[in-house]
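Final report, Chapter 2: Outcomes

The project's central promise was a pipeline that accepts a single protein chain and returns its three-dimensional structure in a standardized token representation, suitable for archiving and comparison. That pipeline is now operational. To close this chapter, we reproduce one record exactly as it appears in the project archive, with the input sequence first and the structure output second.
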Amino acid sequence: MIQECLGILAAEIEEISEFVFNHAELGREEFKSCKYLVEKLKEHGFTVTCPYLDLDTVFRAELYCGEGPKVAVLPEYDALPGYGPNKARRPTRADITG
């Protein structure tokens, strides 16, 4: 089931990856990426709290799908100084779908 969902969302996941990669921002300065990710999560029905924990580039997103196992994801999308769109490898669709 997870592979099926990833297959359906692969193009959008790749688009999100491209956006974050092409808008590299240093830690605590990820304003464009944070706004973009929050918008994407809301489009998929998530309830989003942003800012979160008094940090402007931190958010919490929740999607209630009934009882059962819970999943947590902690994305790290801040750039490292000296790295960016021309110096790193972007994930590909193969990376996303396995």
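Archive annotation: The chain has three helices and two strands.
This record, like all others produced under the grant, will remain available to the consortium after the project formally closes.
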